[in-house]
């Protein structure tokens, strides 16, 4: 694991840089940070194409730091509780992200369908069993 290779101080400095760059990308793409934990950020966007563009920007910035992000994008209704969001679609988005490999942005078929005409291209990653989700879900990777 990268954290154990770097040691606590260097890992914290790297994470601080990652979060600074990620938050800059969120502002640029009109994303709203909902939560952060560990080395990840949960955010909402005005639309799925904007979310993908933001993930691409974060991936480029992090690559310069020697970090390869794993990201997931899903679209759906959520329940709001103060600043927090909850519900099956939040859970599904987290599971899509967890299925991504290093350097990969995975999306649900819902995202692909809503991005039609955007110029964003996807490649099929096939059906995945996602923890806590009853049926297998088709996932796609964003093509650079």
Short characterization:
The protein has 144 residues and is an alpha+beta fold. It contains five helices and eight strands. Helix 2 runs antiparallel to helix 3.
Features:
144 residues; 42% helix; alpha+beta; Alpha-Beta Plaits; 8 strands
What would you say this structure looks like, in words?
It is a single chain. The protein has 144 residues and is of the alpha+beta class. It has one domain (2-142): 2-Layer Sandwich (Alpha-Beta Plaits). Helices cover 42% and strands 27% of the residues. It has helices spanning 2-6, 8-28, 48-64, 88-99, 109-114; strands spanning 32-37, 40-44, 70-73, 79-81, 84-86, 104-108, 122-128, 137-142. It has a 4-stranded mixed beta sheet with strand order 3-6-8-7, with helices on both faces. Strands 1-2 form a two-stranded antiparallel ribbon. Strand 4 (79-81) and strand 5 (84-86) form a beta hairpin. The longest helix has 21 residues, at 8-28.
Count of β-strands = 8
How confident is the prediction overall: mean pLDDT? 92
Q: Provide the CATH superfamily.
A: Nucleotide cyclase, GGDEF domain
Question: Portion of residues in helices?
Answer: 40-55%
Low-pLDDT sequence parts: none
CATH architecture descriptor name: 2-Layer Sandwich
Identify the CATH class.
Answer: Alpha Beta
Strand content: 25-35%
The CATH topology comes to Alpha-Beta Plaits
H and E string: HHEEHEEEHEHEE
Number of domains: 1
> Structural class from helices and strands?
alpha+beta
Distance between the termini: 26 Å
Calculate Rg over CA atoms: 15 Å
Biggest sheet, spatial arrangement of strands: 3-6-8-7
- What is the helix tally? 5
What multimeric state do the chains show? Answer: single chain
Biggest β-sheet description? 4 strands, mixed
């Amino acid at each position: 694991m990268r954290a154990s290779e770097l040691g606590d101080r260097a890992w914290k400095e790297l994470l601080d840089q990652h979060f600074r760059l990620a938050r800059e990308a969120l502002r640029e793409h009109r994303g709203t940070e909902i939560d952060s934990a560990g080395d990840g950020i949960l955010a909402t966007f005005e639309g799925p194409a904007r979310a993908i563009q933001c993930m691409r920007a974060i991936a480029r910035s992090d690559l310069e730091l020697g970090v390869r992000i794993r990201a997931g994008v899903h679209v759906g209704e959520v329940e709001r509780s103060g600043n927090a969001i909850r519900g099956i679609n939040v859970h599904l988005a987290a599971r899509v992200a967890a299925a991504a490999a290093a350097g990969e942005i995975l999306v649900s078929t819902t995202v692909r369908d809503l991005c039609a005409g955007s110029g964003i291209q996807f490649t099929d990653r096939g059906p995945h069993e996602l923890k806590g989700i009853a049926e297998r879900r088709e996932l796609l990777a964003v093509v650079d």
